[in-house]
Write a structure and sequence with these properties.
The protein is α+β, with helices and mostly antiparallel strands and 214 residues long. It has a single domain, classed as Sortase (Sortase, Chain: A), CATH 2.40.260. It contains 3 helices and 11 strands; from the N terminus they run H-H-E-E-E-E-E-E-E-E-E-H-E-E. Strands 2-1-8-9-11-10-5-4-3 form a 9-stranded mixed sheet, with no helix packed on it. The chain has a two-stranded antiparallel ribbon with strand order 6-7. The longest helix is centred in the N-terminal third of the chain and has 21 residues. The N terminus is likely disordered.
Length: 214
């Protein structure tokens, strides 16, 4: 398939960044840094809950489209403002510093742009349910709405809800190039019997349906 210029320019970079982010996201959910049950598998790397998260600048591509402001999932009764997530100096993904704030990864496309936009959130944090605690309840055709800085809304429909083991996370499937505007919501899943380690990642795949005007 012939890609538009923006897709060709972004192709190699997105896959390289995807490898870094895939590894980082495997540790991006859990009990939070202040919990005695937290381990390297269940708390974000090098981000304390009291530390500000400074996102990396959005790419030049993303700056050409409206930036995401809020995430709405009507089927789950979820509505929250989005923060910006970049990469830390060690190449790991910055993650939201609290239970209820999801974050858009600025190194990936913006929601509504060609390619897979990435939004990460906690399933559990510091002993409380996170913004994505009920993500597995989403069903095919459910809507996900991203409101954007210019007042428009990008409306997506769920096409797949899948659980992957961390050891076999499908980086290319989740972060690789696609020929449409897509969205991935990512969190952890599969808490082990010790209650300390999340063995899996839950990924919701969605496809753009329409852009609603302001």
């Amino acid at each position: 398939m012939e890609w538009p210029d923006v897709g060709r320019r972004a192709a190699g970079r997105r896959l390289i960044v995807g490898v870094l982010v895939a590894a980082a996201l495997l540790t991006a959910c859990g009990n939070g840094p202040s919990s005695s049950a937290a381990t390297s598998e269940s708390s974000p790397p090098a981000v304390a809950s009291s530390s500000p998260v400074v996102a990396a600048p959005a790419s030049a591509r993303a700056e050409r489209v409206p930036q995401p402001v809020t995430l709405l999932i009507p089927a789950l009764g979820v509505g929250a403002g989005l923060m910006r997530l970049g990469l830390q100096s060690n190449g790991t993904l910055q993650v939201p510093p609290d239970a209820m704030t999801p974050g858009w990864f600025t190194g990936a496309p913006a929601p509504g742009e060609l390619g897979p936009a990435i939004i990460a959130g906690h399933v559990r944090w510091n002993g409380r349910a996170g913004i994505f605690a009920d993500l597995e309840r989403l069903r095919l055709e459910d809507r996900i709405i991203i409101t954007r800085r210019n007042g428009t809304s990008a409306v997506f429909r769920v096409t797949r809800v899948s659980k992957f083991t961390k050891a076999q996370f499908p980086t290319d499937l989740v972060y690789g190039n696609i020929d449409h505007a897509g969205l991935r919501l990512i969190t952890c899943d599969g808490l082990d019997s010790s209650g300390r380690v999340y063995r899996d990642n839950l990924v919701v795949f969605a496809t753009l349906v329409t852009i609603r005007p302001s």
